[in-house]
Amino acid sequence: MQPVRVALAQLRSTEDEAANLRQIAALAAEAKDRGARLLALPENATWLRTRTVGPVGRPLAGHPVVAEICDLASHHDIEILLGSILLRDDPRALPTNSCLWLAADGSIRARYDKIHLFQVDLGPTTRFDEAAQVRPGRHPVCVEALDLHFGLSVCYDLRFAELYRTLARDGANVLFVPSAFTERTGRDHWEVLLRARAIENQTFVLAPAQWGEHGDGRVSYGRTMAIDPWGTVIATASDSECLVVVDMDAEQVAAVRRKLPSCNHHVLDH
């Protein structure tokens, strides 16, 4: 089995949807040129809310932004993980913060609605209540693609180990965590949580992230990372909009699990 090359995008998205899409298009072309078979985008890749009123989600069917990124996937013959986008299929309900997996033929392979919604109050510059604007998802989602088995999550999900254990039990050997971690929480918690999820589940963890100032005082931590199944950081982004490219091999997961079969040693269960 050949290693799979994945490109992780670090963005500085704003409320300028057109500018965000131009940046994504440029990174998709770069990912293809660098031999990646999958481009992974962070949370809120196409539009990042600051503190102003803006889009409240559109239906997935006929969504113009999703259609544009599907076209990018088919044009470059590359799979794209759209880290998250607000979808509102029911006009009577709040939108979901949804992660979409777009196949290389431009079709939608999978959808995961973020389960855990971010609520924090660390002072005026770090105060968010996602639950006031978004409704939670209910179901974990895995995707089989490119000879690997991917578990999907979004940002704040990272703090809830039981979700990742469920994904690993469902067969995931790669865990995705597209994120927009705040600078304050990212500084202290980002790397340690990513490494913990990799170590306890003996999987790759791939975390494309938002970085920098987005406007109106909102700042994301960045540090897009790839972690191997032993918990070693194998790649980290610089403080810029960029791609991090990594190669993954399912055999590396299997080898770690053979040598230290901790995933088989659970005593307590649900």
Q: How would you characterize the overall build of this protein?
A:
25% of the residues lie in helices and 28% in strands. The radius of gyration is 17 Å and the shape is globular. By secondary structure, the chain is α/β, with parallel strands linked by helices. It contains five helices and 16 strands. α1 runs parallel beside α2. The protein has one domain (4-263): Nitrilase/N-carbamoyl-D-aminoacid amidohydrolase, CATH 3.60.110. The protein has helices spanning 17-33, 64-76, 161-169, 183-201, 250-259; strands at 4-10, 38-40, 79-87, 96-102, 108-113, 119-121, 127-129, 142-145, 148-151, 174-176, 204-207, 211-215, 218-221, 225-227, 233-236, 242-248. The mean pLDDT is 93. A hairpin with a 2-residue loop joins β8 (142-145) and β9 (148-151). The chain has a six-stranded mixed β-sheet. The protein has a six-stranded mixed β-sheet with strand order 8-9-10-11-14-15, with helices on one face. The protein has a two-stranded antiparallel ribbon with strand order 6-7.
State the helix count.
5
End-to-end Cα distance:
35 Å
The helix content is 25-40%
Biggest sheet record: 6 strands, mixed
Number of domains: 1
Give the CATH architecture. Answer: 4-Layer Sandwich
CATH class identity: Alpha Beta
Low-confidence stretches at least 5 residues in length (pLDDT < 50)?
A: none
Under CATH, the topology can be stated as: Nitrilase/N-carbamoyl-D-aminoacid amidohydrolase
DSSP strand count: 16
Rounded to the nearest angstrom, the radius of gyration is 17 Å
Strand order of the largest sheet: 5-4-3-2-1-16
Shape: globular
How are helices and strands ordered from N to C?
Answer: EHEHEEEEEEEHEHEEEEEEH
